[in-house]
Predict the 3D structure of the following.
Amino acid sequence: MLKQTSARMLAELERELGRIEVQLADPLDRLVQGLKLVREALAKLKTLVLAAPFESEATEVYFLKGLSLLFIGI
């Protein structure tokens, strides 16, 4: 469940960032709005993780070394 939900959240974040890139001409405005979206996505991801503990240690490692870095690396 975590993989599918986080993948859906990441796809939505990427769409929103693309929309901002097209709509805003000023690079500083794009940066500010983009960072706001990333922070919101990370907060939702944190809530998701806290609400449903990891199924196994392998799932936790996958999340910490893979999925979470995708959100931060955007």
Summary: The first helix runs from residue 2 to 23. The chain has one domain: 2-72. DSSP finds three helices and no strands in the chain.
